[in-house]
Amino acid sequence: MTTSSIYLSKSAMEQRLNAFERRRAAVLVGLGVLLILISLLSLVGGAVAISPGQAGAILAKLLGIDLPWTYANEQRAVLLSIRAPRLLMGLLVGAALAVSGAAMQGLFRNPLADPALIGISSGAALAAVAVIVLQTSLFAIPSQLLGRYLLPIAAIAGGFAVSWLVYRIASGNDRVDVGSLLLAGIAINALAGSATGLLVYVANDDQLRTLTFWSMGSLNGIAWADMALAAPFLLVNLLLLPLLADAMNALLLGEAEAGHLGFPVERVKTAVIALVALGVGAAVALTGVIGFVGLVVSHLLRLALGPDHRWLLPGSALLGALLLLCADYLARTLAAPAEVPIGIITGVLGSPFFLWLLFRQKIMGH
Amino acid sequence: MLTATNTSVRIGAKILLNSVSLDLHPGEVLAVIGPNGAGKSTLLRTLSGELSAQSGKLLMNGRPLAAWPSQEAAKMRGVLPQASALAFRFCVMEVVMMGRSPHRQSRSHADNIAIVRQALALTDTTHLAERIYTTLSGGERQRVQLARVLAQIWEPCDPLHRYLLLDEPTSALDLAHQHAVLAIARRFADTSAAGVLAILHDLNLAALYADRIAVLHRGRLITVGTPGQVLNSELIRQIFNYPVTVGTHPLYPDRPLTIPHLMRTADTAKWETN
């Protein structure tokens, strides 16, 4: 090792590191542009035809500007009270699910830890379903106290309880055991499934329709009131998780190592689990269980951006929103005017991807 | 000084450390030796704040270990684990940069990069800087982790001293890199007045690089002293349950050289039943 060789490699190394940073930035910008395009597409596409010009005119009118496109009142109502809240909800839910998935995978040090796969979503859904069916009986008093907030709060509490349980089961001896992690997920999904079955058995017809929707997930029928209900929780998830990026990077080295680097490991773990429960719980409360978003998004992004959470979390927010809006667009248009539940679309796209991941882990031997 | 006084650690009913008192002085290399299960790693994990002791007193630079804010402690104490769980595809530069986490607020990005580069050069890993960590060999990973830990405690924190705790730092390394790692630790102790504690299995490496050797057996500290005082055939036979001859190194007369005897098949059976 000579001094000259260090200095020779210095500039080359720095150039390539800078190129890597630029590539990461370019990926984020590209995702942002695609997200804007798909957002516009979701405003104009659907059962009621609205041209881009008309959409522009309707939105401009809100700001008091008149544009030369004419539109019917029906089109205005569809755009402003159906498509706009649905679009925003899709953005927030997709972003929160993907960021939560990336965070969970960091915490478990394993790329298979999707919130739906390891039972967090079904825990949240079970709590939400219990509230729907038992609102007038068992939950009469909390329902009067909390009103519409009971549903998301119950879902968040359910999500938190399950995350904590799964974490306890899977992380013994400082190593997260993937086998126990996935088995715990299977057990919790099964338990939640049979509890939901029981609730279906006692539910009335109205409740049955709602329950069906829980099991599949959908952005259908999201109104501004739903948005207002869920948005604060989703935004807390989206804004606070990236602040823990450094600590999550250190956690990938191992919990003891993160502690030696000066991170308050126990507090970080609790904060990540709480924030994930907040995001996933709120998402599930309003849109049901939408699986595989966290899994697919953060995995694809690790290939493009590397595993550094400071890039991965913002990237996941963008790609998660993008993916969910694409899936929702397909859900609305594939069988128009009928709708396919969005959870079915993400499931159809996500399951083969998951199998491919498993296969790849197997042949790569870790 | 990093001190443990009458420190005992129990997990369940099992006593892992039994009233151990040991000082790690600034500027010294202290090797910890002992058979498997003697409590070496437990001692290191206790000094690193990872395990809490049921009884006894632990002090770092005159203050109880638990009383140091974790970020302050991280600036003066680096810990190299036996093996790292890192399974994500970070490049080596990023891994070593994680060592700078405690300094993110106090130092500029350029300073941190410069220190990372020096740590890479010191551990002979500059050529690996852009490689993906998970594609490295075991020995390369260990050197990269050492670079990360050195980068963490790179700058002096005067008037306080720094400490480097190494858990079997040479286990995955070839001959030259075993010596290189201990030479780095030696130089770090000499030039930075840092206290280095290293768990070692190779008695000759311990004899060559350590100022003092501590011998642990069944959770107790048996003895601690210079290699010449500690390493003798009787003690080693008792502690490791194995016959050796201890001579002096032909090049360095003050350094003992431990030569194990041949294990005969008859002994294998006896050893296995022990």
Automatic annotation (TrEMBL), chain A:
Record's keyword terms, sorted: Cell membrane, Membrane, Transmembrane, Transmembrane helix, Transport
Membrane topology according to the record: Multi-pass membrane protein
Span of the signal peptide: none
Transmembrane feature ranges: 25-49, 84-104, 116-134, 146-167, 179-202, 223-245, 271-299, 311-330, 342-359
UniProt-annotated location(s): Cell membrane
A Pfam family matched in the record: FecCD
Protein family: Belongs to the binding-protein-dependent transport system permease family. FecCD subfamily.
Database matches in PANTHER family: ABC TRANSPORTER PERMEASE PROTEIN MJ0876-RELATED, FERRIC ENTEROBACTIN TRANSPORT SYSTEM PERMEASE PROTEIN
Name listed for the protein in its UniProt record: Iron ABC transporter permease
Originating organism: Methylomonas rosea
From TrEMBL, chain B:
Molecular functions (GO terms): ATP binding
SMART domains per the UniProt record, alphabetical: AAA
Pfam families hit by this protein: ABC_tran (PF00005)
SUPFAM superfamilies: P-loop containing nucleoside triphosphate hydrolases
Family matches, as InterPro entries: AAA+_ATPase, ABC_transporter-like_ATP-bd, ABC_transporter-like_CS, P-loop_NTPase
Lineage: superkingdom: Bacteria
Keyword Thylakoid included in the entry's annotation: no
Annotated CDD domains: ABC_Iron-Siderophores_B12_Hemin
Keyword Translocase: yes
Coiled-coil features, chain-numbered ranges: none
Positions of the ABC transporter domain: 2-243
Keywords: ATP-binding, Nucleotide-binding, Translocase, Transport
Function: Part of the ABC transporter complex HmuTUV involved in hemin import. Responsible for energy coupling to the transport system.
Descriptive protein name: Heme ABC transporter ATP-binding protein
Organism for this UniProt entry: Methylomonas rosea
Lineage: Bacteria, Pseudomonadati, Pseudomonadota, Gammaproteobacteria, Methylococcales
